[in-house]
Design goal:
The protein has 344 residues and is mainly α. Helix content is 75%, strand content 1%. Helix 3 runs parallel beside helix 8, helix 4 packs antiparallel against helix 5 and helix 5 packs antiparallel against helix 6. The longest helix has 36 residues. Strand 1 and strand 2 form a beta hairpin. The protein has a two-stranded antiparallel ribbon with strand order 1-2. The protein is built from 14 helices and two strands. The radius of gyration is 21 Å and the shape is globular.
């Protein structure tokens, strides 16, 4: 086996490597073309990517449950959480615990509602979470009317914008979160159950796995992380405004897919989500340097997501076809789902 074949085999098991390579290549190109990029600018990109990573990790849990599950309510959760933080914390560190508790409760409530709609009423996740988002948008409008001013807790502001030895605190938080998520996916029972449910729900049910609980947990995790992200994002920008979470809807899905998590479920990559978040911020930065308007930037990001989904779909279909041929020839008796893979 030559080096290229060995790398290809290794890359199939470690899909995050492609987003990492994309970050390296795009960074080198921007450094050469603009002659402006340095370690200090990289820390700024890491700061922006950290907020995307937090909500992307939550989205990753939902996508891993399979059947095309996507949480479309994350944008509304982020926005409403920022308003709730302003209303509860009121710019005082003494109220920070109350604000954090309110954000967590908001995430639990929204995650619970999404779980009820998807698991309890069997409504497709895309439709259920989209409807939840509309409800939250109305709550955001009411919260906007109740805001008398913008005041951010100094401690929360430090967490969102501060640095330690030049490294953004938010980046440290995101990296620690990614490491913890990778550990959960690979070494805990919940991580194994999540992969099993995403690969084949029927087989998981026959193995006495409570599918509904696992799926509900994924939606709750997604909403809680989105809510905490809104809390920190509001501190970073110094306030809240309507639809402030909207950019994270498409980008969180893109970060999950580009990072190597299979859109069909069953295999997730926390490390890949981090690298893909950095890559997306670099892509946006590139488009801003070129001078593309915001609408065109959304189009480009959409094309990137479609392209990656198309490649992922072809890969899964080819693997399923190979399994079917092997079964027809009688060469194998059983084969894991095409979505199977090692969580990272």
């Amino acid at each position: 086996m030559n080096g290229l074949a060995a790398f290809s085999l290794w890359a199939q098991k470690n899909r995050w490597v492609w987003s990492a390579i994309g970050v390296l290549v795009l960074w080198l190109v921007l450094s050469v073309v603009t002659n402006r990029f340095s370690l200090s600018s990289l820390s700024g990109i890491m700061l922006s990517a950290s907020f995307l990573t937090v909500v992307g990790i939550g989205q990753m849990f939902v996508v891993t449950t399979g059947r095309g599950n996507i949480d479309l309510s994350v944008a509304s959760v982020i926005t409403l959480s920022a308003f709730v933080a302003l209303l509860t914390i009121k710019g005082q560190d003494a109220n920070l615990a109350i604000g954090v508790g309110a954000a967590i409760l908001l995430g639990l409530a929204v995650g619970g509602l999404n779980s009820l709609l998807v698991v309890g009423l069997n409504i497709p996740a895309i439709i259920a979470t989209l409807a939840t988002g509309y409800v939250l948008a109305t709550a955001t409008l009411l919260s906007n009317r109740a805001i008398s001013g913008f005041a951010v807790s100094p401690l929360l502001k430090t967490l969102a914008t501060g640095r330690v030895s030049g490294m953004p605190i938010m980046a440290i938080i995101a990296i620690v979160g990614v490491a913890a998520t990778a550990f959960v996916l690979r070494y805990t029972v919940f991580g194994q159950l999540l992969s099993a449910v995403g690969q084949n729900r029927t087989a998981a049910r026959l193995a006495a796995i409570r599918n509904n609980r696992v799926i509900a947990s994924a939606f709750i995790i997604s909403s809680v992380l989105a809510s905490l992200n809104g809390l920190l994002l509001g501190a970073y920008i110094g306030g809240a405004f309507l639809e402030m979470g909207q950019p994270y809807l498409l980008q969180s899905i893109a970060a999950v897919v580009l990072g190597g998590t299979l859109i069909f479920g069953g295999s997730a990559s926390a490390v890949g989500t981090l690298f893909a978040s950095i890559l997306l911020i670099l892509i946006v930065t590139t488009m801003q340097i070129v001078g593309l308007p915001p609408g065109a930037q959304d189009i480009v990001q959409g094309i990137v997501v479609i392209f990656v989904l198309a490649l992922a779909g072809r890969q899964v279909l080819s693997r399923r076809a190979a399994v079917d041929r092997a079964d027809d020839d009688g060469t194998v008796k059983s084969e894991p789902s095409a979505a199977a893979g090692r969580p990272e």
